[in-house]
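Researcher: Checking consistency across runs. Here is Secreted protein again:
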Amino acid sequence: MRKAMTTAAAVVATLLLAPAATAEPPPGVADVDAYPVAQGRYSVPSDYGWLFFTTPDGRACGIGPNGGPVGCDAVPADAPPGTAQTVVAPGSPAVYRPSAGAGFGRDGVDVLPEGHRLVNFGASCAMGFQGAVTCQTYGRHGFTISGGYGVLW
């Protein structure tokens, strides 16, 4: 009986002292490569070689040719103050940066549906099922952003 009470007390203490869980990025960033490629209007005549899309919640993103740059005119709630874009380019980790305007937004492009991706000569973006956008270039650098969190690599 005494051993059972000691064990129970240890379990309760462990649970009470455990740190609170934090939001985690979607598991397996590479999993977005299995999403089907979206069909729709994602290019505009004025920006040859680029693909543009909006997310279901209205964020604007673009994928440059030959691996990028790739970015979104959006940052998550945990981004540094004063930033307005999330951007990655080949050979460099993703960053949050300030913006003077909507650099990745274009009128008339389609919404990228959840569970689909776009691929543009070495770079890609995918729309997850929980509102997260994952973009990567040449498979080495990228980002995942949602309204509440962001992960840069």
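Researcher: Does this match what you'd expect to see?
Model: One thing to look at in this run: Residues 37-152 form one domain.
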